Structure formats: C-alpha cells, structure tokens
Amino acid sequence: MFPVSTQVLFGQLLVGLINGSFYALLALGFAVIFGLLGIINVAQGTFYMIGAFVGWMLLNYLGLGYWWGIVLSPIIAGLLGMALEKTLISRMYKLDHIYGLLLTYGLMMFIMGMFIYFFATAPRPYPVPAELRGGYNLGFMFLPTYRAWVVLVSIVFCFGTWYVIERTPVGRNLRAATENPMLTRAFGINVPALLTFGFGIGVALAGLAGILAGPIYSVSPLMGGDLVIVVFAVVVVGGMQSILGAIVTGLALGVLEGFTKVFYPQGANMVIFVIMFIVLMVKPAGLFGQEK
Amino acid sequence: MPAPATPDIAAAAPRTATYAWYALGALVLLAVPYFVYPLFAAKVLCYCLFACAFNLLLGTSGLLSFGHAAFFGSAAYVAGHALKVWGLPFELAAVLGMLAATALGFVFGLVSIRRHGLYFAMVTLALAQMIYFLAFQLPFTHAEDGLTAVPRGKILGLFDLNNLYVLYYTTAAVFTLGYLLIARITHSNFGQILKAIRENQPRMISLGYSVNNYKLVVFILSAALSGLAGATRTMVVQLASTVDVHWATSGDVILMALLGGVGTLFGPVIGGVLVESLQFYLADSGLPIPAVIGAIFVVCILLFRHGIVGEITRLMSRKH
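Output (structure tokens, whole complex):
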C-alpha cells in the first residue's frame, strides 16, 4: 500500500509527535503571554534554549541530575522571565504593541549572542536519565521510553495549563485581566502582579520544553532560534489567542511534518509554512480564532 | 507602526534648505571613496538603500515587515545567478533581481496585508522563513555554499566594475536613484494617502479609498527596491548566501530604520552606516556581534524610539 515500511512510517510519526509536543508547549506559552500582555514574545525560543542549558549546567556544575533539572529548569526560566517582565517588558504596555515585539527580539539576540560567546555553538550532550532508558517493542515499531515520556509530560502540562486557565479561580482572574484590566483592578485584583505571573508561566512552559528536548537534540545556543518562527506559524494557524488552538495545532502540525518527512522529505521544513499560507488565505483569523 | 510623529526634514524645511541638504549629501557621496575603502563604502550604501526601502513601507503605511530579507536575498540570488551562470551584465541582472523581488512582494503582500499590526509582522516573518528553507533546497542556490565568486562584469559595457572606484560610483548611482524615488513616493499624493490610512484607516475606508490596494502597492514597491539593494550588493561583494535570506537580516534592517529614525527619509541611511560600520569594526574585537546588536535594539527601544534623525528633528522643531 505504501512505498515505505511501517517501521519508518511510525518512526517518523513519533518524531513528528515529539516535535509537535515542543511546538504545543511553546505555542501555548506564547498564546498565554500574547493573550494576557499583548506582547509577541520572540524570545520564546530563547527561553526554550535557557531551559535546556539550565538542566545542562545543573548536571555539569552542581551534579544535579535530570529529575532536579526538570523541576528547576522551568522555574529558573520562569523567574528570569518574570525579572525581565518587571524591569523591561512592562515598560512596553502603554506603547504600540510593535515595540514589545522589537524589545523581545533585541533580548533574544542579546541572550543568544551571550550564550554563543560563552558556550560556542557546538551541541553539548545531555544524557537520558537511567530510569527512562530502554524502550518497548510494540510489534510494529520500537518505542524508546524517553520519547514516550516527552509526549506524555507535554500533553499533561498542556492540558493542565488549559484546565487551570479555563476552569480555576486563578485562571478566571487571568482571563478577566485579559478582557478588561481596568475593571479587574477595580475588583481589587493586582493586575500588574498577575501579568508578571502570566509571563512567568508562559516562559516556564518554554523552559520545560527545553529540558525535555535536551536529551533528544543536545544542548546548543542555537536550538531555539529557528524554532520560534515555526511556533509563530503554529500560533497563526491555530488562532492567536486560542489556548486550545495552540495545543491542538502544535501537535497536529508536528505530526504532519513527520508525515511529510516520509513521503516528501524535501518539503518537511516548509510544510508548516505552506499550511499557514493556505489558512491565511481561507480563514485569516486562524482555525480556532474568532474574527474580530 | 505607531508613528513617531516626526515631520520629515525635507517636508518641514523650506525649499532652499532642502536643496542645500541634497547638495551636501551629493558632495559627501562623491567624496567618500577618497576617505573610506571604496568596497566597504559601496557595501554600506547597499544596506542603506535596503533600510530606506524597508522604511518606505514602515514609515508611510506603518506596516512592520519582519520578512524583508526574503526580497533582499532572493534578488541577491537571482542577480548572482544571472551574472555568474548566464553571464548577463550587471544592469540586466539587477533588473531581473528586482523582478524576482517584485513578484515575491506581490505574493507575500497579497497574503500578509490581510492581517495588520503584530499579525502582519509574524506572517511576513513566517513567509520569509519559507524562502530561507527554499534557499537550501533549490538547485541554483547551492545550499550552504551559496553563490560565490560572482563576476562583476562591466557597467554600460564600458567600465570595468573590478575597478573599486567604478564599483563605488555605480553603487552610489543606484543608491541615489533609489533614494530619490523613495523620497518622491513618500511626498506624493500616494504617500500622503498611505499616511492617512496609517492614522485613521476606518475614515479612509469610509472616504472610499481601497485601503488594501494602497497597502499592497507600497508593499510591492518596498520589496522591489529591497531587491535592487540585494542585487547590487551581490555584485559588490560577489556573493549571495543563505545569510541574506535569514531572519537576522530582516532584524538588522529593522534596527537600521529604528536607530536612524522610522518615518524620516534620511534616518535609515544613518542607521545603515552605523549598523554596518559597527559590524565591521566589531568583527575583529572578539565581542559577540548578535549580543551587541541585541543590546542596541533594547537601548534604542527603551530610550530613543524616534531614532537619531527623529530625535534631532524633534529638538530642532522645539526651538522654533
């Protein structure tokens, strides 16, 4: 039926699913930040890189392993994000939104440049933890345990974030602050603190994706640079402010990219952008977005 | 964009002063190669033209494109191919490069002007990334190697462009042509209508202007002139590579316009000279160039959003 073996097909689908998990985590964080602050965070890929580097540094400087890393990396990335929001990004809220984009672009260049300066661009290996080595033979394919773990953690955190935002009091406050910050303040809710918190969450999701990616793609200062543009395309396809759209589109486009690698390898890098092109022509607000 | 409300020097000053500025500019342009290495000066002029072309879009219509490297780079490739493989003279290669950029600008514009503001920036960036990946795939771009050792040929079939002074003055002529065209467009009725659209789009729609057509035309013009800059640069540095279509090039040109002054005619020229000189002198210092560029970006946005020319114009108009 297919000109390819099921082994190859499912192998690439798994790679697609893993990339899709990273797209989903990054796009989700991006959508949270954009929805709440109106800031296009170009540095989202940089925080992904920072998340991976924090894990690598914990291991190599302090001897703290993967399980420390997966807890501490998102927190440290998040705290760094919150510090940047408090000192720099919060100054952009009253200006045209474009300045927020340009500021985060400058921050991305700065942070990436400094990492290249201190760590050079060669990828550094980051080992898979002992508990997650090996894999399962599913009959039609071999499933490495770590890859299953990545997909599982991403999906749990994506839908966890969705649940917190849509179904809990904290999320209600966040959504209120997005809809009408003035009125939310009038109810005695500390909106600026909420914005800082929201930025931290969005960035922490990128940090989480980074540490998850470390053992698969190795750690390098360049790892987030091109990824963020894919995330842009994902978010445009999903609909800019849609949380669910970001998650579903991220996973779906990752899988689609995996498929393309099997059937038309030359187009694999471009397929997501082609989809974006088509969606913009047909439904400019995105698949899950609402036309304003 | 936000429109730093800075009147253009040329628009605000009386006629005679304008001519004096142009005369001074022409003198500087003629004298430069006797003080600066002509090849470097020619390269800088290409980026200045690129920045002006980018600013034509941003300054008049307020649309921030994050994908102008696609026009610059694809024209660079097409012109490089025409010079090297087809052996065409520079004049024809530049026209072909411009045509490629124009066609690409039409397609990009058609899709991206459906969204404005932030969406527009993101969409142009993502579209440009497609071109970046294409540059790795197409047979004539030679992937990572790029087009190297592109021959310069002769200008008008007479003067050898390998003579650095001929090279410089040819580039200066291209730059002047592009700059004057951009100035003419900015001050034309068309340019004024674009500014009105930027200030109040709903009103312009209700007045019966087909807003999207105006935006599309200026987008295409900006793409074509960026292509002219890219094609000329390929001839000057004899190279077209994936760096030219990378998003960092789109970022650099934004910085040039921002640093010099968005919406001013002359600002991007200053910005282009500064950014290019900086990269040239930093190359030997061992400092991380992207980090320095990033830091300038941040400082520029936090402290002087109107850019150098913009801030000077503001100070001057405050005195009166």
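The first helix of chain A runs from residue 6 to 37.
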